[in-house]
Amino acid sequence: xxxxxxxxxxxxxxxxxxxxxxxxxxxxxxxxxxxxxxxxxxxxxxxxxxxxxxxxxxxxxxxxxxxxxxxxxxxxxxxxxxxxxxxxxxxxxxxxxxxxxxxxxxxxxxxxxxxxxxxxxxxxxxxxxxxxxxxxxxxxxxxxx
Length: 145
Description:
Blueprint: E1 18-24, E2 33-39, E3 44-53, E4 59-65, E5 71-75, E6 83-84, H1 87-92, H2 97-109
Antiparallel strand pairs: 1-2, 2-3, 3-4, 4-5, 5-6
């Protein structure tokens, strides 16, 4: 019996591009807003957007919900940049369309999100900080998982 190894071609990941527009303004602490994100293929998806705040009213993140009840959470208080729980942000370790759209929409609406308070970094043992496929750092890696 022989075995063969199939080597998959690495898919080139295209940069995140698109447009965002407000359909209903977000009023912090009062009502949800609604935005429309149009991707590079001219496909538009609408999301309800709400802000997560702490007890003092400081913004900690945002929630995006599609009409089919798919929800994405954006954490703005992580201390090392905004993160989203979507697959693009989690597995490719890059800023996804949700984060870019929320940043652009907030800037257009004049809503600023202050940088999070600096916290002492947790001591984490890093085993390998480079991609095993291309050897680049995970921040610069475009490999697909």
